[in-house]
Specification:
- Helix content is 78%, strand content 0%.
- The chain has one domain (6-389): Sodium/glucose cotransporter.
- It is an all-alpha fold.
- It is globular and about 75 Å long.
Length: 481
């Protein structure tokens, strides 16, 4: 046991090089935008299921979730109840709407119902939010690389970003999905390895660790408090987590794009609901890693919460295993980052470039898509570097989820207005989304701590629904009068 060794470095380099090359190879034979962005709609649901889980959690789960348990308890797990419920609602309500037409992005559904303005407004908001949230993910992954090499964070971020760009540029969504599936398996193996090593290095093993954690109140899972300032309660998990899952998995191009690569509606529903079950198990696994780390380090303070598990991997795990786990961290992050790059390029190409230029040439969309892939990769790297000075206040997973939650309520409200309210129209829906996002953002900026972030989506969704419905009716009356 000890520091990062030459063998670990060899394992890391070989693995990352192999994954990058494989991902690029998977993109062979692409002929158009449909291949590049939707995998020709023939990917197996099992691979898509694993890709969905890896995309939404990957590095944030690997590095940040142990930090959440280290600093707190197991109450974060309550969110997964809502995550599963929200997926079931999306599978029953939104997915059938997507599969009724040949839609190529999540926001094409809004265009069918309201018009191009609603589609572009929502897609534009998605791009800004995804850029900010996934830049935080990229920063989190640079932590272990910086610890290993001694490189500054900006250099570490650039290295990971460039490697990801290579296989995303050439491989498209097919590479993204299959590499995601591989990486998820690897980082789950890494978590089990960490649990086994913790058994050996904690005095008294897991029995003593759990006894100490129980005495300190760290094994608490359920908290039925109705205090809205607390982010991890049963009600925040069920309601806030449910709305968050409905928004992220039903309206966010990052996830919806994967679901649209399935062969049919039934396969897409299996991938979505199955991913919810896997997420429950995954979060529990990494939270227990955090409990073990708390016992091993005896609750010592760390400058950056996301560095806790990374430090343990480098300093404690056996030679070779350290390299494999660090490779898992990088590769998982690369798969998540590649998902973001590809979805941003897809939204840019289909929601903006193609309609504005009138292009329907699928081969040309492939060329444009690759160019947009390059642009978004560079932007993500740049914003991740800019995040470095702000990284000490919270775990990256909480920062990323908070940023996403600022707009998810507006997205979800718009989609439900389109499905449930026959009188809703484009101008009213856009105003509703703008108000929903503005209200939640104002709470976040001016009333920090007054409301826990899991409540942002229900609040934003409620405001969007109310304002959108009322504004649509007032606009209709104005036209009639």
């Amino acid at each position: 046991m000890g520091a990062f060794t030459t063998l670990d470095l060899v394992v890391l380099v070989v693995y990352l090089g192999g994954v990058t090359a494989w991902g690029a190879w998977l993109g062979r034979g692409q002929r158009g935008g449909s291949d590049y962005f939707l995998g020709n709609r023939d990917l197996p649901w099992g691979a898509v299921l694993l890709s969905v889980v890896a995309t939404e959690t990957s590095t944030l789960t690997f590095l940040s979730i142990p930090g959440v348990a280290y600093l707190g308890s197991l109450t974060f797990l309550q969110l997964t109840v809502g995550y599963l419920v929200g997926r079931v609602v999306v599978a029953a309500v939104l997915l059938p709407a997507y599969y009724r037409g040949e839609l190529n992005t999540a926001y094409a559904l809004l265009e069918e119902r309201f018009g191009t303005g609603a589609r572009r407004f929502t897609s534009g908001i998605f791009m800004v939010t995804r850029l900010l949230a996934d830049s935080v993910r990229l920063f989190a992954t640079a932590i272990p690389l910086a610890l290993i090499t001694g490189w500054p964070y900006p250099v570490s971020i650039a290295v990971i970003g460039v490697l990801t760009l290579v296989y995303t540029y050439f491989g498209g969504i097919r590479a993204v999905v299959w590499v995601d599936a591989l990486q998820m398996g690897l980082y789950l193996v890494g978590a089990f390895c960490a649990l086994a090593v913790l058994q050996m290095v904690i005095p008294g093993g897991w029995g003593a660790a759990l006894a100490d954690a129980s005495a300190a109140g760290k094994l608490a899972v359920l908290d039925f408090s109705t205090d809205p300032t607390l982010p991890y309660t049963f009600w925040a998990g069920l309601i806030g987590g449910g709305f968050l899952a409905m928004a992220s998995h039903g309206t966010d191009q990052l996830i919806v794009q994967r679901l649209l690569t399935c062969r049919d509606l039934k396969a897409s529903q299996k991938a979505l609901v199955g991913s919810g079950v896997v997420v429950v198990v995954q979060f529990a696994l990494f939270l227990f890693v955090g409990i073990g780390l708390w016992a091993y380090y005896e609750g010592a303070a760390f400058a950056v919460p996301d560095a806790i598990f990374a430090t343990f991997i480098i300093d404690v795990l056996p030679v070779g295993i350290t390299g494999l786990l660090i490779a898992g961290v990088f590769a998982a992050a690369m798969s998540s980052l590649s998902s973001s790059i590809n979805s941003l390029a897809s939204a840019s190409a289909y929601d903006f470039w193609a309609p504005l230029t009138g292009t329907r040439d699928d081969a040309r969309l492939l060329r444009i898509g690759r160019g947009l892939t390059l642009v978004w990769a560079l932007l993500l790297i740049g914003v991740a570097i800019a995040y470095v000075p702000m990284s000490e206040d919270a775990t990256a997973v909480e920062v990323a989820l908070t940023i996403a939650s600022l707009v998810y309520g507006g997205f979800l409200g718009a989609f439900f207005l389109g499905i449930l309210d026959e009188k809703a129209e484009q101008g009213g829906v856009i105003l509703g989304m703008a108000c929903g996002i503005a209200v939640v953002t104002s709470i976040w900026i001016f009333a920090t701590g007054a409301v826990g972030w899991p409540w942002f989506v229900p609040i934003g969704g409620a405001v969007t629904l109310a304002v959108g419905a009322v504004a649509s009716r007032l606009r209709a009356r104005g036209r009639e009068g």
